[in-house]
Amino acid sequence: MAQNQRDELVFVPLGGVGEIGMNMGAYGFGPERSRKWIVVDCGVSFGGPDLPGIELIMANPEFLEERADDVLALILTHSHEDHYGAVLDLWPGFEKPVYCTPFTAAMLAAKRAGDGIVENVDVTIMQPGKPFNVGPFTIEAINVAHSIPESNALLISTPIGRVLHTGDWKLDPTPVINKPTDFDRLRAIGEDTSTPLALICDSTNALKDGESPSEAEVAVNLEALIASAPNRVAVTTFASNVGRVVSIVRAAEKAGRQVVLSGRSLHRIMGIARELGMLEGLPPLLDQDAYRGLPRDKVVLICTGSQGEARAAIARIARGDHPVIELNAGDRMIFSSWAIPGNEREVIDIQNLLIDKGVELITQNNGLVHVTGHPRRGELQKLYSWVKPEVLVPVHGEAAHLHAHAKLGRESGIPNVVEARNGDMVRLFPEPLAFPAEVRTGELYLDGLVLCTPEESGVKGRRRLSFGGHVVVSLCVGSNGQIVSGPDLVVEGLPETEDESLTDLVEDTIAGVLKSMPPKRRSDAEVLNSAIFKAIRNEVNAYWGRKPNVSVFVHRV
Predict the structure, then answer these.
(1) Is 248 within the bounds of a domain?
(2) Among the residues of 257-368, which ranges form H helices?
């Protein structure tokens, strides 16, 4: 058979490899010209200060759209935003099934209802330990511990090789409500030598030695902190960490306190957990309206806003503008979370406001009140020893995480280690080969209600406006060069001092241009436009040290 007609198993990361978040990967099997594809995860990342107005970022699916007839399904490992948050924006156009667990399916349905999304996706429920077929692929979900219910690794089998796609995981033998990582199944995968195995593996904590502490250890510490508090206790954590919320509720009940929830995402996710039987035996969770009626030493508040979101509950409480909840001197505030990179400043600002109120602050810096949901180096090495991969491709991380993971894999004796990035194609089997083909990839921005490419978004213009402000000039000039009306002027975002007004400077600059130009040249709208534009930019720059954005409208009448 000709070389390009043989079956190959390839992996193409479209997002999440070279960055944190926006996870999306494609697996292709078959001859190059007739390859069938499945997609694993479809997540988002969040716009920062460098992307003004952009809420969400997701992988551009153009590579998949060009092969839409051969794309068979999307499989979701779990329902964190960075793994499933783009499904309802990107997947309806494919009209192919989405495979996920009941909790993830419920989260998708709640997201669709909450965001008022009309288009739907075809969801098929998968169960860990029960393989299913999608075209030439056999897929098995495997329980792994993580910070959200029903997280799974995926064993993807083909006639020429297998892939263990870990998703987000850790080796936590004592999670609070989630099932632990299925150690026995992972060991069995390594004992099966019928076909070789590739490991596509989470790199988030590849820079950290040892093993991640257990969720049960956090539960013990939270119980002690809640029991010893003399007044109110408030806790903020990731709303999706149902196990952490359950630990808080159990600790509150043991201390004789009632639990109040504040934040829509908390109510939504805990409602889903209750419907799926995850909260059996727990006392009722009260709405925030019950807060003021409870004694200070009989309440535990669980609230949203662990990442410093300005409109979330803890931010409003810290500012003192929450309609029903307040914290006072002597109350205890626990940040049972960590700040995602990029959110540190906002979180610190909230914490400082609480400290100024006299609130006692507990964070991961002064107590074990949060643990990661990702494996450290010791856990990675254990997984290598169990599954015995022939190929390792580190994913889910920035360059430093991916490189550290790759180095660890080589030091551990894995024969083929590939340091890929978004848009690279990796041939896993046969004969592992890095980058046999170039893939078109990129990003999409959710800009308000509009999904667009970076080039279409107008973000570059917003950055210019945020840096240099904007001067708008409009005037009408007659055919004889006389000014008929104007100039009218709008100045936005330029400094105004007591010594000199930049608005006055701009007005004087325009007057100088009009006075210096003979009528015949003024009658040429293009010449007059250019002269005013250049003069304003130069004069403001000479005074301010920055060139503003300038728009000049010269109308001939």
Answers:
(1) yes
(2) 264-275, 313-319, 344-356
| 3-class DSSP assignment, residue 122 | coil
For 145, which DSSP code?
B
Claim to verify: residue 385 and residue 514 sit in the same structural domain: no
- CA 109 from centre of chain: 19
As averages over each run of 10 residues, the pLDDT of the chain (557 residues) reads: 69 95 96 95 89 90 95 98 95 94 96 84 96 98 97 97 97 91 97 96 96 95 97 96 96 97 95 95 95 96 92 94 96 93 87 97 94 96 98 97 98 97 95 82 88 88 88 92 90 82 90 90 91 94 91 91
Within a domain: 534: yes
Q: What is the domain extent for residue 473?
A: 469-556
Nearest-angstrom CA–CA distance, 8 and 5? 9
Do 526 and 442 share a structural domain?
no
This prediction has a pTM of 0.90
* 8-state DSSP, 181: P
Is the domain of 118 the same as that of 189? yes
* Statement to judge: residues 201 and 266 lie in one domain: no
Inter-axis angle of helices 525-544 and 502-516, nearest 10: 140
- Give the closest residue to 144 by CA, choosing from 80, 236, 74, 65: 80
Question: Rounded CA gap, 40 and 76, in Å?
Answer: 6
CB 167 within 8 A of CB 133: no
On whether both 391 and 347 belong to a single domain, the answer is no
Q: Which helix (H) or strand (E) holds 504?
A: helix 502-516
Tokens 């609230």 appear where?
Answer: 303
Give the whole-angstrom CA distance, residue 393 versus residue 420: 7
Tell me the C-alpha distance between 211 and 84, whole Å: 27
Angle at 364 between CA 359 and CA 368, to 5 degrees: 110
Looking at this protein, which amino acid is placed at residue 422? N
